[in-house]
Amino acid sequence: MSGSLLRRVRVAEVEPVANRIKRFRLVDADNAPLSEFSGGSHISVVMHAGDRLLRNPYSLMGAPSDTSSYQISVLNCDPSRGGSRFMHENVTVGTELEIGQPLNLFPPAKLAKKHVFIAGGIGITPFMSMMNELDGLGSDFELHYGVRSLEDGAYCKYLQSRYGSRINIYRQDQGQLIPLENVLSGQRLGTHMYVCGPKPMIDWALQTAKLLGWPDENVHSEQFSAPPPGKPFVVKLARSGREIVVRGHQSILEALEENGVDAPFLCRGGACGQCQTNVVACDGFIEHNDHYLTEPEKVSGKKIMICMSRIQTGSITLDL
Ligand code: FES
Hints:
Order of helices and strands: EEEEEHEEHEHEHEHEEEHEEHEEE
Oligomer: single chain
Bound molecules: FE2/S2 (inorganic) cluster
Number of helices: 7
Structural class: alpha/beta
Number of strands: 18
Shape: globular
Largest sheet: 6 strands, antiparallel
Strand order of the largest sheet: 4-3-6-1-2-5
């Protein structure tokens, strides 16, 4: 799947919800109903930021059954590759954008007896629709949400007023940390844990769950990583013979799209495996920035995840 099915939407509302975080409400540009989605889904938003084409993934936060609008939250990252800054500085009420269809790579487990959500900062966003969905189903869940301060944490008051004691907020400015070991110890059999937030937090949660003996299949994580910048290089497409320059702040996938080449993708964050591409030849060193390929696969140099990884110099020939 290339994810190229796009829909035109209009921004109906923009609201600052915390320091550097804005909520955007999107409606269909022709006021048609949007597609239903499931808790944990995301959409990609297409942005023409200057001479750059970006497609950033954002979690859908509203009620999954609400087809009147979609809601996303955007953190103005510092440094930004351009996407979040573009959303904060250029997108206002009335702006038209293109979005991809909702995709879910982070759904709540259907057979879980209970759901424990661990969120850090903007990592709260996928849990907003999950909790909405699970609440409607009468499912058991609890949230542990770490924020720098109440001004930096989005939706704290809303969540506490809606879900009461199931919401636990931890404020860094008051020296509070998620008591992860306590939270994960003593949960009943069949509980699933989900974590979303900065990479160190995800690593900490996954490692703690492992140490406490949680089965791998009960532990879920989602991280939207941006492709790191580097030096420009050339991608050769073995099937068409085309040569495309990947600029310093672009991923290979973004450079292909900018040049009209339809390549497969889903998450655009190095996690789902959809963009895995065979390497035909490479005269440079591949920087594997994904968390999908195994170490032996990375060392072999025969595969590359084109949404995240790049080469340091020279050129690479791909089976495209
Ligand atoms: S699109 Fe998911 S790993 Fe590249």
